[in-house]
């Protein structure tokens, strides 16, 4: 099982193939935002990779990051990433301090929209 290390939170063993956004909320118990329900529309689920950033990216994630002019190295959308290797991340978009009433809509088990994989 891949190991997920979250700065200032801890280390967690995550089932391979699980969506990162779900691992952050369900397995690690963080208050990671996901306002659009994990559909690559809002960027509230963004995280910053310290180590283990996947080379693959969905076309939907790339389009959303480009549209929002988010081009900082290592910043990715956790809703579009599968846990298939060890990762170290920093949470950058949390419920605490956001002013939102909740973390967001329910997230499906499968990546939405159906992923078309590419590289940056």
Automatic annotation (TrEMBL):
PROSITE patterns per record: 2FE2S_FER_2
Keywords annotated in UniProt: FAD, Flavoprotein
Gene3D superfamilies: 3.10.20.30
InterPro entries: 2Fe-2S_ferredoxin-like_sf (IPR036010), 2Fe-2S_ferredoxin-type (IPR001041), Beta-grasp_dom_sf (IPR012675)
Region (Disordered): 94-120
One of the record's GO molecular function terms: iron-sulfur cluster binding
Domain 2Fe-2S ferredoxin-type intervals: 2-95
SUPFAM superfamilies associated with the record: 2Fe-2S ferredoxin-like
Alphabetical list of Pfam families matching this protein: Fer2
PANTHER family: NA(+)-TRANSLOCATING NADH-QUINONE REDUCTASE SUBUNIT, NAD(P)H-FLAVIN REDUCTASE
Name of the protein: 2Fe-2S ferredoxin-5
Gene that encodes it: fdx5
